Amino acid sequence: MREIILPIDSTSLVLAPSSFGVQPWKFLVIRNPEIRHQLVEHSWGQKQVEEASHLVVLTIKEDVNSQDVDAYLARMSEVRNTPVEKLQGLGEMVKGFLKEPPYPLDKDAWSSRQVYIALGFFMYTAAMLKVDTCPMEGFVPDKYDEVLGLKDKGYHAVVVCAAGYRLPSDKYANMAKVRFETEDVVEYID
Known about the structure:
Layout: H1 11-14, E1 25-29, H2 33-40, H3 48-51, E2 54-61, H4 66-80, H5 88-99, H6 107-128, E3 132-136, H7 141-148, E4 155-164, H8 182-185
Antiparallel strand pairs: 1-2, 2-4, 3-4
């Protein structure tokens, strides 16, 4: 695998929005070639895990709770130079949502939906910079958790994204994208 420096960094991930701004995630940029080689086995044999110049594993923080909300409020207080006491109303609202949501809520499923927002931001940023991405759900999350030591840290792998420039020999590089017609997938309701 040749090292390619891409004109993307973690900014698009860090600045991605999330519900309430809680950011129930961690992004792992896997640079270790041995670990990437090991992950191929748990990625349905998909070689881009090993061959792409960049591999990002997007994870969720399991069982987001009041302490996570307090950490977010502390960070907001620091960044905005606002006393944390003035943020307590927001904190209580978010904690209430997580404890007794207005609808049935699986917090880990909710966190997973949040991480997909970050994935979209990462992929869009890469596309604007002419960098290809390959989002992947074709992997065994529990095995990734094991290889990356995520369980001990309270995180769980949700989606993987390989990024890099296509090789000129890539047979798919110049093929037309296959998408349904706009009218088949977009409906306007007036």
